[in-house]
Amino acid sequence: MVKCKLCGRFFKIITNTHLASAHHWTLKEYIQKFGPKNCGFLLPNLLPKSDPRYIKWKESLKKRPPPWNKGFTKETHPSVAKISETFKRKKIDNFAKWREKVKKVVKIESKFQPLRQDGDLAELIGVILGDGYLEKFPRTDRLVIISNSKNSGFVERYSRLIEKIFKKKPKIRKRKDSNCIETSLYQKSLSERLGIPAGNKKNLEIKVPKWILKNKSYLKRWLRGLYEAEGSFSIHEPTYTYKFLFANKNASLLESIFQALRILGFHPHWGKDKIQISKKEEVFKIKDLIRFRQY
Which of 27-36, 162-171, 223-232 has the lowest mean pLDDT? Predict the structure, then answer.
C-alpha cells in the first residue's frame, strides 16, 4: 500500500481519479511535486473483488469477442494464408531489411571457429582454470569468472581480455548473496574452442596445453592467469619468511603448475593442496616475471 501525500490515505496506487475527486489535482501535478513512484493507472485486476469497478470489468470481459486468430494458424486462417501466398508468389521478403540489419550488428560465430593461440588466450585459460568455469546449454555455452568485489583491477583486466578475445563485451554484476563480482559471457562452442570441459573442475584431468608448453612467453601468461585467480604473495619480516603460493584442490592442476615452474627455472615445493616458492630471490623473481597483481 502507498500513502497519498495530500490526504494521508492508503491506496494500492495513486490514481488520477482519486486526485481529481478528492484534491482537484491532476496526476501530472502530483508527479511533478512528489515523483512518479506508485502513481498511474490502476489496473482493474488489482481492485478488490467486491469493488463495483472490478465487478463491472469482469462482466465486460464476457461480452468481448474472441481474438480474431483464436483457433487458427497462418496456414489455416483464410486472410493470413492469402497474404502469405501473395508474398511467396511475388517473392517479397518481409524481413529482408531486418535480417540485413541484424547481420551488421551481430557477428555470428561459427561453431568450429578456432581462437587465436597467443599470450592473451593463454592467460585467460589460466584464470578460468583458477577462478572460472564453463556451463553448457542446448544452444550456447556460458563462461563465468568469479572475483572479490574489492579487486577492481582483476575485474577490469579480465573483462577487457574477454572482450578482446571473443569480440563481445561480457556482463559484470555483483552477486547479491556474497561479496563477489561475476564476469560472464554467452557464446557458442566456448568449451571446445578453449579446450576446457564444462562443469566442475575439481576432478578433471588438467594439463598444460601443448601450444602453451612449447612457448615460455605463453607459459608465463598462463601462470599469471592462475596466480591472479588463486595465488598469493606474502612476507613475514620477523621470521624472514617469504611465500609465493598457489592453492587448489585439483591434484592434476597442481602438478601442471609444478612442472611449469620447473621449466622456468624455479624450485617450488608441493604441499597439501598448494604449490609454494619460499626462496626469497625466487619469490621476487616469479612475482616480477609473471607481473603478479600489476594492473
Answer: 27-36
Could you tell me the residue range of the domain that residue 164 belongs to?
119-194
Count of domains forming the chain:
3
Q: Do 190 and 223 reside in the same domain of the chain? A: no
What is the CB neighbour count within 10 angstroms for residue 71?
8
Verify that 131 and 173 share a domain, yes or no: yes
pLDDT tens track for 175-215: 887 889 999 999 988 999 999 988 887 778 888 999 999 99
The answer to whether position 267 is within a domain reads yes
Quick check: is 205 in a domain? no
* pTM confidence score: 0.62
Q: Write down which residue in 169, 194, 219 finishes a domain.
A: 194
Query: CA–CA distance from 73 to each of 34, 84, 85, 86 (Å)?
Result: 48, 12, 14, 17
